[in-house]
Amino acid sequence: MLAAADAALLLRLGRMHPGIARAALGVATTALAIAIANWGIAAVEMGRLVGLLPWESALRLGPSHAGTLLGMANGPVDLAWLAASLVIAAVACR
């Protein structure tokens, strides 16, 4: 939700005109922040298990393995919060 609020604030400060384009950019930015955060969390957890630094593990982590780890880590409540963040980004950035 913090990424959604940040996207809305930055798009307004950047004086982007309100509308569908600003809302879409806010949602895309929020989705990218969610993806990067989840990838980083998965990389840290795997790196810790095999003795790699987080950035080394992030480069070696494949999409299939990351998807499996994130599927196990994010329950229904977490997914609901992530979806709510995207909705808030769309509304706040409009």
Structure characteristics:
single chain, 94 residues, mainly alpha, 5 helices
What would your notes on this structure say?
The protein is an all-alpha fold and 94 residues long. It has one domain (16-93). The protein is built from 5 helices and no strands. It is elongated. The mean pLDDT is 91.
Structural class by helix and strand composition: mainly alpha
Shape call: elongated
Counted beta strands: 0
The share of residues in extended strands comes to: under 5%
Radius of gyration: 16 Å
Overall number of domains: 1
The DSSP helix count reads: 5
Order of helical and strand elements: HHHHH
Uncertain ranges = none
Approximately how much helix is present in the residues?
A: over 70%
Termini separation? 16 Å
The description of the largest β-sheet is:
none
Summarize the structure.
This protein is mostly helical and 94 residues long.
List the helices and strands and how they pair.
Elements: H1 2-13, H2 20-50, H3 54-60, H4 63-73, H5 76-93
Helix pairs in contact: 1-2, 1-5, 2-3, 2-5
